[in-house]
Design goal:
Four copies of one chain form a homotetramer.
Chain A: H1 12-31, E1 41-45, E2 50-54, E3 68-72, H2 88-97, E4 103-107, H3 110-118, E5 124-128, E6 145-151, H4 157-169, E7 176-179, E8 184-188, H5 191-214
Parallel strand pairs in A: 6-7
Antiparallel strand pairs in A: 1-2, 1-4, 2-3, 4-8, 5-6, 7-8
């Protein structure tokens, strides 16, 4: 970000603000232990064509503004030689498919990883009867059902993108998804809403695992 | 709180002090992870007719004095356009039914939520044989039994209020209650006693869940 | 401690130093969550006849020097109107029976409470095969067996004191003990050794509970 | 380190830098609770013949530069009367067998200790299907298998060294190993890679224990 002239069409003030929001979220989520071993990645939409996203492999507990890079909606680096995360394609897909989304958080907590393995065979986790479902935008009662799909893991990103597209194209609602043995993706209209979604989902997955341990 | 003239009958110094006590408790309970995703709410009695209570939807880990509003004992906002939490009715009920109570804490920990689901069918959790029962005002021995009711959840507050009233009208002691899939309510004569009750109940519920996991 | 003249035979500098060590340990153990709801108490020997001990009911996370009082080896308050904890008798017993002990820590973690309930019927927890047994003074190998008795709880302190005396009079080694549904007592030649004993025992009890959960 | 003249061939600046890296890692790992009761030890290679390593028995949460000493690749103290840890032989073995390794971390978390006991009979833990396996240098897909051997514990270090040598001499890859009832050893090309390996292994062992609890 020391060369503002290479981003001719980018609002540098907005880029700086969003990079700071990403770095702050990263540090706080790392402190929860949800980003082990430099895993996880985070992004915010900048405008119709650009996204600010974490550079691959950085320690999320020490993230600063210069650990964030710019990509276009095809996931190509813009104005930098830095390498975007392989999973950038999953972020840009959210921004293409959800016009209101401005933030995407992908974390990797132990609860998320374990839940993804346990429910992988079902392909979905159904949450029901929890007051905290109301933390998901659009949910107003614990009596509703919140479905979180669990997609098979693959190192071939286009396959993952296709699985998410297929779910959306079927017309089912989607607020978040898990990848088997991996972690969660969720998003929202702004960073606070996205953080609220992530915290609520981590909490609900943890409750479901506890119930399963306790109800043989 | 920048317009003191709109609260003509309110002791502004007392309101400020109690708002600070609420905000401090909220930040500390949030740090324990007991207020996920902007859930939970907290209040303190101000005088015979007024209660200071957290405004709905604020991040409890960052609560400040201006996130607290005033309501009357019917749960109506006083001197503000802010929207009180839907659950305000459960707070004001405590102040009406327990003349000595000056603080109410409602949190939403994973232990509380899971315990509420496990014991919902019984309608009550019976705690017995734990030294820490003595942390509840009026208990002097681990040989006593401490009953915590678990009420069915509903988005219709008058039904919840009626359930609590029915328990109290039956003459049974009440120090705290759980709502199924939701969280806990407890109270006390001042904030330290209420904090002590909440910490003791969280601890005891956690111990009961552990024993259940370990004693098949 | 604002009236030094009421302790004519006490080394005030030493009392201040030991009160500071107790308060520091209390704050750190409270931060681990081992002193819920104002439970737990801590002491250090001052001389042949006096012990500095925490005053009953204080929040251990906020302990300061003035929360510590002086008692004699019979547990009677010295030079103060403050009320010593009911459990003071268990501290002074340690100082009478172990001439080298200068610190006693009694905490109340969830692991300690749950382990005490699970092993109460056996009356003892046998630890074996853990490298960390070597953290207990006198143990040099994981191949030894470390026995921690679990005594029945009672609100009548002389009965607890008698149970500990009976164990010691039988000639069995004693490094720590649990009280059922309650917590642990351990001690050492100085505060660092006592802290090391307490941390090792909390760790080993937690490992035993985990193994039991995992080895059906 | 107050007598620089006794280390005639040692780069004092490098020694100071590496001692600081070790102390920083120790404090952070202690804050995670992975070094209970003064257990665990940490080292960094200095040159072809020397290693900086933690002095035995120090509190890892408070480690400073003077808690680190120098040994040669036979584990003998260099330029100091301090006693190196009994486990120094396992550190120097890593530096002899892995020319690229510059850091070794040995910790002692509850998860590591419990996993070592559970898998001791198998002699190995096989990790498979976890995205975080990619945090181990050389792994590029969750479809690989990562084997962590579990060696029997002994207080006789040459036996432990021989077990590790036998594994390596058999030609099997080795990124880390557990000792039964004890803890983990891992290493890497620099401190950040070694930290990443340790965090990933702690996470993966925790996930495996959770899965085992949840999949009866």
């Amino acid at each position: 970000m020391s060369q503002p002239n290479v981003f001719p069409v980018i609002d540098q003030t907005l880029l700086g603000e969003r990079a700071d929001l990403i770095a702050e979220a990263a540090r706080e989520l790392a402190a929860f232990g949800w980003t082990p071993a430099t895993s996880s990645n985070f992004s915010m939409r900048l405008d119709d064509a650009h996204v600010a996203i974490t550079i691959s492999g950085r320690d999320k507990g020490r993230l600063i503004r210069s650990d964030i890079m710019l990509v276009d909606l095809d996931g190509q680096a813009v104005g930098t030689d830095a390498r975007p995360s392989a999973e950038t394609a999953l972020h840009t897909q959210v921004y293409r498919r959800f016009p209101e989304a401005t933030a995407v958080l992908h974390t990797h907590s132990r609860t998320q990883s374990v839940a993804s393995r346990l429910f992988a065979a079902d392909g979905v986790i159904r949450l029901e009867g929890w007051e905290l479902q109301k933390a998901i935008a659009g949910y107003t009662t614990h009596e509703s059902v919140l479905e979180i799909p669990v997609f098979p893991n693959t190192q071939h990103m286009p396959d993952l993108v296709a699985q998410v597209d297929a779910w959306l194209d079927s017309g089912k609602p989607l607020y978040a998804y898990l990848i088997n043995g991996h972690g969660i993706y969720t998003w929202g209209r702004d960073m606070p809403e996205t953080r609220r979604h992530l915290e609520a989902l981590e909490f609900l997955l943890g409750c479901e695992l506890d119930l399963r341990r306790l109800s043989p």
